[in-house]
Amino acid sequence: MTVGLFSYLAALLAYLLLTVLLITSWRGRLMGLFAVLAAVATAAWAMVNAILLSDLRLPAQLPAIVELARNGAWLIFLAHILVADHEQQASRLWIRAAWGMIGLGGLLTVVLPAIVASLDRASSMATNATLLGWTLQAIVGLLLVEQVFRNRRLEKRGEIKHLCLGLGAVFAYDLFFYSDALLMHRIDPGLWEARGIVNALIVPLIAVSAARNPSWSLEVHVSRHVVFHSATLSGAGIYLMAMAAAGYYIRYFGGTWGALLQIAFLFSAGIFLLLLLFSGQWRAQMRVLLSRHFFSFKYDYREEWLRFTEALSRRGASLPEAIVTALGGIVDSPGGMLWVMNEYGVYELMERVNLPEPGILVQPAEHPMVHFMMRLGWVVDLDEYRLRPELYEDFDLPEWLEELPAAWLIIPLLFRDQMCGFVVLARSRIKRSFNWEDRSLLRTAGHQAASYVAQHLADQALIRARQFEAFSQLSAYVAHDLKNLLAQQSLIVSNAEKHKHNPAFIEDVITTIKSSVERMNRLMNQLRDGVRGEPQTCVRLDDVIREAIAAHADRNPKPQTESLREGLRMKVDKERLRTIFGHLIQNAQEATRPDGSVRIRLDREGRNAVIDIEDDGIGMSPEFIRDRLFRPFDSTKGLTGMGIGAFESREFVRLLGGDLMVRSHPGRGTLFRVFLPCDEPASGPAETRDD
User: Fold this and answer.
1) Could you tell me if 241 and 198 are in contact, meaning their C-beta atoms sit under 8 angstroms apart?
2) pLDDT, greater one: 434 or 542
3) Which one of 139, 192, 345, 481 is at 20 to 30 Å from 145 when CA atoms are compared?
4) Closest of 43, 85, 315 to residue 200, by C-alpha
5) In terms of DSSP bridges, do strands 598-605 and 608-615 run parallel, antiparallel, or are they unpaired?
6) CA dihedral sign, ordered 179, 185, 187, 188
7) Could you tell me if 581 and 544 are in contact, meaning their C-beta atoms sit under 8 angstroms apart?
8) CATH of the domain at 369
9) Which residue has the higher pLDDT, 279 or 585?
């Protein structure tokens, strides 16, 4: 078997295999059809040339026809790829250019030589025309390859770069071969014989691009291990060929020292190649490089990410449990543990799924395992660590993990350069390899899970803060009410010496103390239950206002009613509403001179009851109303005030669906207007009573 025959047989076998792969996975789309036709045409071209080298007779025009078919098929294929990235008008231009080149090439390489042959004339013009046609086809092929690559969107060039590299190399080789033949008026036998192997070598590149282009409807997948070994052998062959060529030129230009230099150079190159081939680290790096850039990935990342996010948000599971099961689902792990950093800076066990209880429930942050994961962010494979501990420098297992034989992987949860936790996964249900792609996916998923953990911790902290805030607010309200009760008791004590022999005073004291005891009992129940107020009942607003007025009638100026519309009802906590009216009345009294006036009105506007509490006291400035009146714990009464009466009044009124508005002028008085939704129909006269 000659070298040329072996070359073209290799090309035939390679393109037949590519054709089978493309046909078996073709789904009927047009781009896939053009890919199949190009592979078939190249296989036919290789077969015809192999037959010629076997000294078998073929029709004179057949080699030129298959050459034209091969070139034309790849031109059409490239033109249709280019069409996908252009508008309709430009698409038609490139398709027409490709077909025009095929027509011109057919005229120069098939039709013109056939006419000359029919005239029984041997003319160099026909040979030159054929070589010119093939040269033009190679030039157009290079032009199309460049346009395909340049017009591809930057983020999608990875899908097409291997095809462009392979076809660009073939067209460049053809351009050199055709132009050399055209200039030298002869075909170089060595270059012609090498064309077969040159075309065969680009088949893996075409297959990779086919696998990366869903629009071709092709699902070509080549085993990493098979192609890695074949790529290693091919690379070694190319390396040795390059070294042999370099050695030849050393010998040719080395003079008397040429032979010695050639032997020394080839020996050194061979030793260097063996060192590379037997280096485990180099092979591992090459395997990762080839897997990342030349093969379809192990995972369908879109499906994995959808499944992962769905598992994180599934119903019926707490977030810590969902994080463990979602990360475990990626590598078929049946369970695991979630450790989360608490507010004291140590990691505590938050969730455990299908793993036994560890010996401890907290993991100090100063442990070497924690420092290792924070520094490098690696996913730790415990099986690999036990076999090759030198890979994990400065890493050490805590005792509770050493005593857990089911532990397999440790995934750091990194969020904004902080490790908010880590997940320990149990060994997979099935025996499976764990490679760089698993690590990369788990590490990325760990970043996503870390954001969920950080959000969960922030939510828990916010809930606790709100609970303390609610309790503090309740305590402030209760303290404010107790202050008012103490004021009543102080008033009784101050008047007791003067009126202790007055039966009416004693009766009033007993009634006041009884009411105070009842209110203090309610306040204690509110503190115990953490709930402000009593159950709602249907009350008449005019009755609640009269009770509030009566409770504050013992100090000047005494509150007076101008008009109270009767029959306005609403469902409300009566005691709390009476307390709110009492706050507003008391504030009006405290802001007014003893000889001043505090007037109270109740009416209706539309669906709302309107309660006015107006005084002619010192009034307030607009700035004070805007900035300080409703600010809690801001009081103008010094140590006797708490600054929450107005704030609580407005908050409670708004909670009922109403509002509290203020109109005031310094030196002229203040009007507090309360709007409350009521149930009484809009009809019915207003009744006025003077109390």
Assistant:
1) no
2) 542
3) 192
4) 43
5) antiparallel
6) negative
7) yes
8) 3.30.450.40
9) 585
**Which band of pLDDT confidence, cut at 50, 70 and 90, is reported for residue 688?**
very low
Instruction: Give the model confidence (pLDDT) of 467-480 as tens digits.
Output: 666 666 666 666 66
What's the pLDDT at 184? Answer: 76
pLDDT of 640 above 50: no
Which pairing describes strands 336-341 and 407-415: parallel, antiparallel, or unpaired? unpaired
CA 423/CA 411 separation, integer angstroms:
5
Residues 344 and 268 in one domain: no
Backbone torsions φ then ψ of 678, nearest 5 degrees = -125, 170
pTM of the model: 0.41
Which of 173, 204, 222 terminates a domain? The answer is 222
Distance of alpha carbon 208 from alpha carbon 128, whole angstroms: 37
Instruction: Evaluate whether 573 touches 534 at the Cβ level (below 8 Å).
Output: yes
Cα 184 to Cα 359: distance, rounded to the nearest angstrom: 84
The last residue of one of the domains, among 458, 479, 501, is 458
Residue 457: its pLDDT value, please? 85
Based on the structure, what is the number of domains in the chain? 4
Helix H or strand E encompassing 665: strand 659-665
Instruction: Indicate whether 177 and 267 sit together in one domain.
Output: no
Choose the most confident range, by mean pLDDT, from 122-126, 178-182, 309-313: 309-313
- Residue 142 to residue 75: CA distance in whole angstroms: 10
Whether residues 335 and 241 share a domain: the answer is: no
Give tens-digit pLDDT for 220-251.
344 444 444 444 445 545 554 555 555 555 55
Q: Quick one: which of 588, 501, 522, 520 has its CA closest to 549?
A: 588
Bridge partner list, 422 = 339, 412
